[in-house]
Write a structure and sequence with these properties.
Low-confidence stretches of chain A: none
Shape of chain B: globular
Shape of chain A: elongated
CATH architecture of one domain in chain B: Alpha-Beta Complex
Helix content of chain A: 25-40%
Radius of gyration of chain B: 21 Å
Low-confidence stretches of chain B: none
Number of strands of chain B: 11
Mean pLDDT of chain A: 92
Oligomer: heterodimer
Distance between the termini of chain A: 70 Å
Chain lengths: ~500, ~500
């Protein structure tokens, strides 16, 4: 573990009272496996069902019940491992992690301890400043989720909902390779993107299908790793930043005040943005891990793994590289487009046979902007790729101006319809008839003789005339033609 | 009518085929015998209505000429098996009132084959014990007594109720389970035949778990043929138990008539333990001679790690049990003793719900799995287990079956040993190695000791070679004859 000694660039160090500190972060991400059925039972995994309706005899730990591995969940975890360029262990073992709690009916969680399904892998982060950060994945193991204890349903009692009990989780353990809150956020964002590309986890943090425990420590640059604290209950990407910044600051202040950091588990409180002690190392459970005797070691065929590998989709890093190469996009734009595979997919449909850069601009600036404004997802965009593509075509064909195109976008957004028909029906075509434009230019110049005179000395004023002409023509005049005529008539060429 | 209860399963089968009696008559005879024998405490829950209904159905099938392999055969079921809507409490207080909404795979197979259910049989609590004294429902009394002595004796355990019921003719056969000897030791103590199949031969689904890597269901019967008949119905792959093995289940009855000429019978020298009574040793020699006389080849073999089997077993089994029994927490079913808070409720429920032996094993198991002790105990015990397995593999390079005594002694008095857990554990010394190695074993009555109590010999075979158990068992049965206690209890 301690061999990870990536040193942060100096701008990532944080100032303390006695000098600069480096933040070291590793994450354990619990990702709920996308699957119809649970890891060891046939019960449904549907979110939001009435309490205790998705519970099989196995989930409720009835006497004599036995777990049977759900092959699909294993395939999903293998797929995830392959997506993170990780080693797939053809032999892995399920262990029991023993502890008592009412939402854990068996009295143990079936997990993997010494022999996980997936070994070392890597996640690449492209930071906004252009730095590329490689985050090592130490392992991914597969385990059962616990149920939910509901403490707010009754003044004195705790209710237990076992719907989530036994749902498959992947615990994705990173190496302590992250050096700032920004990197941690970027890591979880990237990991979520990859999981969504793979279709192995929906990444929904509000519903708890993606949860992160964060290990935070601080050290002086170049020194060995400090003592870490594990921060739990961080259930949004925004909170991850807050939790790390708060926890790092707490540790720095503690050390600078002459104290020492004690290894412990801390809880993040989203209302205060602070972390507080949950249990110390001494209070840590002795989980008494041992191989689950109800399950034989999991042995996979290499050919089975190979078949999953052959079926992997294009992943964000590859897609980004391809978009840059194929459409001439900037790394920045490509990065935005590949953040969701649905967005990238939408973009590629818009760009097909059209100007890729224009398509990227429209998707990023106009479409994503409008979706964001209306709180919609790209999967229920009111505008289809074909509709947006038609708008871009109309500009290219000089049928409409860019300004009209924005109007047209809004019309299609709210009313729908074929953009070409709308342009036709509402007379939005730009005027390319030079005679008509010339008349309009003459009219504006003759109405403003003073300005026309001034323009001879200050050629920049030509822009004002262009604006007036565009206004007079309702924006439909071809801007290039107006520009040329104005300059000619004003004699400012 | 009571003589119907003296018939074996094979004899009942023949009688039904001839129309000599009805399934209902047989069921009633057994129900009457059970009602008259409650002093033995073998049954802890009787199901006369189910018995009569199932017998009526069997009569219908018999009349239609559509008899199944166990048509109309009345069986007792160890309380460890979950039976739908019926008392399934592992003879523990903590499962008070538990009647599951499901049927164990093994019992479901028996009913599918036409067997008739008489009720649930007493046992050591959670199958932990070798004398049936740890049952929440009190001890079972062995139908056997020493000559001229009315001291109540234990029937062995944990399947003490099953063994006593079969010996006392309260059921034609019984289901049982064997984790360290819980079928074979009570069989030896009651003059019955008990089979512990290969691990994975019978499904564990629906059987309350004690030690998952060791537990196996098997039959207890009056003779070797009956055991073979029951075995065929109980065995088979079950997709709901991933440790069950997908191997065809043969008809074991043809093996009964197969000669043992040329069969290589191993006699493991390490089973000659210090302090073993002379009569047990003599009986073993008799057994060797019976096999030799039947044409088998006798081979001395060595199982060098035998002496470590019992201590390793008493680490592995409690470790698994401590985890398997965590689910009995008062939250969802069975007993709950209210407390001031959650932890208090857990503690009070488990303190009241588990008996002394179960608590002892949960404590041992928790200890050996604890951080800092795991390597020294659990991991070491697993390594020993591998060595024991290898011992058997080497022996089976040279021989086809092994012949050993089942127990180092005959049945003892109720209360005589229960104060000394280690002395009690030594009862399993000859049976535990087969569980540790996952091998099939059978105990067949081989004679009576000086006090007139039955003693058994054990045959151990290669994995999934249960047929060899029956083939070997017949040699003992033919030579030794069959043993039945004289009825003093009804």
């Amino acid at each position: 573990m301690n061999k990870a000694v990536r040193e942060a660039a100096s701008q990532k160090l944080v100032e303390g009272a006695t000098g600069r500190w480096e933040i070291v972060v590793g994450m354990e991400v619990h990702a709920q496996v996308t699957s119809q059925a649970k890891l060891f039972s046939g019960a449904s995994t549907r979110f939001g069902a009435d309490p205790n309706t998705n519970v099989s005899l196995v989930d409720a730990a009835m006497p004599g019940m036995l777990p049977v591995i759900n092959e699909f969940c294993i395939a999903q975890a293998v797929r995830t491992g392959l997506g993170l360029q990780a080693k797939i262990n053809l032999r892995s073992v399920f262990d029991r992690k023993n502890y008592f709690y009412p939402d854990l009916p068996q009295g143990y969680q079936i997990s993997q301890y010494s022999d996980p399904l997936v070994g070392e892998g890597v996640v690449q982060l492209d930071m906004p400043d252009g730095e590329r950060v490689e985050v090592g994945i130490e392992r991914i193991h597969v385990e059962q989720d616990a149920g939910k204890s509901l403490h707010d349903q009754h003044p004195a009692k705790t209710y237990v909902d076992l719907n989530r009990t036994g749902v498959a989780l992947m615990e994705i353990v990173s190496r302590p390779d992250l050096r700032s809150a920004d990197e941690a956020r970027a890591y979880l964002t990237k990991l979520r993107t990859i999981l969504r590309y793979l279709g192995t986890c929906d990444g929904n943090m509000e519903e708890g299908s993606l949860r992160a425990d964060i290990n935070v420590s601080v050290r002086r640059p170049g020194e060995p790793l400090g003592t870490r604290c594990e921060v739990k209950n961080v259930n949004s990407i925004r909170f991850i930043g807050q939790a790390i910044e708060h926890e790092a600051r707490r540790q720095i202040d503690l050390i600078e005040d002459g104290g020492t950091v004690e290894q412990e588990t801390r809880l993040f409180d989203p209302r205060t943005g602070a972390t507080r002690s949950m249990r110390s190392k001494e209070e840590a459970h002795d989980y008494r891990y041992f191989p689950d005797p109800d399950l034989l070691p999991l042995e996979l065929e290499q050919s089975w793994v190979d078949a999953i590998a052959a079926d992997l989709p294009e992943l964000p890093d590859d897609k980004k590289a391809r978009l840059i190469a194929e459409y001439g996009l900037s790394a920045y734009d490509a990065g935005i487009l590949v953040a969701d595979w649905e967005t990238a997919d939408f973009f590629e449909k818009v760009a097909a046979g059209r100007d890729g850069k224009a398509a990227a601009n429209w998707v990023i600036n106009d479409l994503l902007g409008a979706l964001n404004r209306d709180g919609r997802d790209i999967t229920d965009s009111p505008l289809s790729p074909d509709q947006l593509g038609a708008i871009i075509e109309l500009i290219g064909e000089e049928v409409i101006s860019g300004k009209i195109a924005k109007e047209l976008f809004e019309i299609v957004w709210t009313e729908g319809g074929d953009p070409r028909d709308i342009v036709e029906a509402r007379g939005l075509k730009q005027v390319t008839d030079t005679g008509a434009i010339e008349a309009a230019v003459d009219e504006v110049i003759s109405a403003n003789p003073d300005k026309a005179e001034q323009a001879k000395a200050k050629p920049n004023l030509a822009g004002w005339f262009v604006g007036q002409v565009m206004k007079a023509t309702g924006g439909k005049a071809n801007p290039q033609a107006v520009n040329a005529l104005v300059k000619k008539k004003l004699g400012v060429e | 009518m009571s003589d119907l209860t003296t018939l074996t399963i094979a004899e009942l089968r023949d009688g039904y085929a001839r129309g000599a009696f009805s399934a209902r008559e047989v069921a009633d005879a057994y129900l009457a015998a059970i009602a008259a024998s409650r002093g033995l405490n073998a049954f802890i829950h009787e199901t006369p209505e189910a018995a009569r209904a199932m017998a009526a159905q069997s009569d219908q099938r018999l009349a239609e000429g559509a008899a199944r392999p166990l048509e109309g055969i009345p069986l007792g079921i160890k309380d460890l098996f979950c039976t739908e809507g019926i008392h399934s409490q592992a003879a523990s207080h903590i499962l008070d009132g538990f009647a599951p909404p499901y049927e164990s795979t093994v019992t479901a197979k028996l009913w599918d084959d036409g067997a008739v259910m008489l009720g649930k049989l007493n046992m050591d609590e959670f199958a932990m014990g070798s004398s049936n004294e740890s049952s929440y429902y009190g001890p079972v009394t062995n139908p056997w007594r020493r000559n001229g002595d009315e001291t109540p004796l234990v029937p062995g355990g944990s399947s003490g109720g099953s063994a006593a019921a079969v010996a006392a003719r309260l059921c034609a056969g019984a289901t049982a389970t064997d984790t360290g000897g819980s079928i074979r030791q009570p069989a030896a103590f009651t003059g019955t035949v008990g089979v512990k199949p290969t691990y994975g031969r019978c499904s564990r689904w629906g059987i309350v778990a004690f030690a998952s890597s060791l537990d196996q269901a098997g039959p207890l019967a009056r003779d070797v043929r009956d055991a073979a008949i029951l075995m065929r119905s109980m065995a088979g792959h079950d997709p709901k138990d991933t440790t069950s093995v997908d191997q065809p289940v043969p008809d074991y009855e043809p093996a009964l008539d197969q000669s043992v000429k040329g069969l290589r019978v191993g006699v493991p020298r390490e089973y000659r333990v210090d302090g073993m009574p002379a009569e047990v040793e003599r009986l073993w020699e008799d057994g060797v001679n019976w096999f030799r006389d039947a044409g088998a080849e006798i081979v001395d073999v060595s199982l060098p790690h035998t002496k470590y089997a019992l201590p390793a077993y008493y680490i592995v089994a409690p470790a698994e049990a401590s985890s398997n029994l965590a689910r009995y927490d008062g939250v969802r079913y069975g007993l709950r003793v209210e407390g001031d808070d959650l932890i208090d409720m857990y503690e009070k429920t488990r303190a009241a719900g588990f008996g002394r032996e179960v608590k002892r094993r949960v404590l041992i198991g928790t200890y050996v799995l604890s951080a800092g002790y795991y390597d020294a105990y659990y991991l070491k015990a697993q390594k020993v287990r591998t060595l024991i397995k290898q011992d058997f593999e080497h022996a089976f390079d040279k021989v086809d079956i092994l012949l050993t005594p089942t127990t180092p002694n005959a049945a003892f008095g109720i209360g005589e040993v229960s104060g000394d857990p280690v002395q009690m554990y030594i009862n399993d010394i000859f049976t535990v190695p087969a569980n540790m190695a996952g091998l099939p074993g059978i105990s067949v009555p081989a004679g009576l000791d000086a006090a007139g109590l039955p003693l058994g010999l054990q045959v151990i075979a290669k994995p999934f070679d249960e047929a060899a158990l029956f083939r070997g068992g017949m040699v003992i049965e033919r030579a030794a004859g069959r043993f039945a206690p004289t009825d003093w209890w009804s």
